[in-house]
Design goal:
binds zinc ion; about 20% strand; single chain; 7 helices; alpha+beta; 7-stranded antiparallel sheet; about 210 residues
Length: about 210
């Protein structure tokens, strides 16, 4: 894909994920060891993956890119609304890179929610659809609103400007919509992850 420009929409969300096929979080890790992870149990590797919310400069649309651990320090150093250039190496498997832009227009929006850091967690829960995770979060006090996706918002686009596929569409829509229900989920997830970080599996792949 050709490099494109964006503003940072909020902090990058980092999770230990299984990234073979569809990238999904490690259930064991997400639940602080409370639940077993079927993907760990079949020996799938897990790695830190970042979900970075952006506003595309071209049209201001909210988009989300998946970034890898190697770029974490640099990406976490980017401030809200910082202008960035986004690209990827020639190979399909090359990681996405995000570099600060030195000269760029300032971010502005008439949408109040977009002046605050974007809340990604509800969107991520929707795209992940990890069995057991939603139930676990609800049991621990997350807002039930996250279980009812809002299908009415305008369809957002993904990082290369093309529409999201079905798998990502609902999530991206959630992200594009005002995310007032998000904070409760963030709180629960935050509390869970603040505890001791378990190994990704009790009987896992043996190389952690
Ligand atoms: Zn796992
Ligand atoms: Zn591993």
């Amino acid at each position: 894909m050709k490099p494109w420009q964006a503003w940072i929409a909020g902090p990058c969300h980092w999770y230990l994920c299984h990234s073979k096929g569809k990238t999904k979080p490690c259930l064991h890790h997400m639940t602080n060891g409370a639940l077993k992870c079927p993907r760990c149990e079949v020996g799938e590797h897990a790695e830190e993956v970042g979900y970075l919310p952006l506003y595309r400069m071209l049209d201001g649309k909210p988009v989300m890119v998946i970034v890898h651990e190697a770029s974490r320090e640099q990406i976490d150093g980017l401030k809200l609304h910082a202008p960035v250039q986004v690209g990827r190496g020639a190979e399909r498997s090359d990681p996405v890179w995000v570099q600060p832009m030195l000269v760029a227009p300032r971010y502005t929006s008439s949408i109040a929610d977009r002046l605050k850091p974007a809340k990604l967690t509800p969107s991520l829960l929707k795209i992940w659809k990890v069995p057991g995770l939603m139930e676990w979060l609800l049991k621990r006090g997350a807002a039930p609103a996250i279980a009812a996706p809002d299908e009415t918002a305008a369809p957002p686009v993904k990082s290369d400007g093309k529409p999201f596929d079905g798998f990502h569409a609902a999530a991206a829509r959630r992200y594009a919509a005002p995310a007032s229900a998000g904070s409760a989920v963030d709180d629960v997830l935050g509390r869970a992850l603040k505890g001791k970080q378990p190994k990704p599996s009790t009987n896992g792949d043996g190389h952690h």
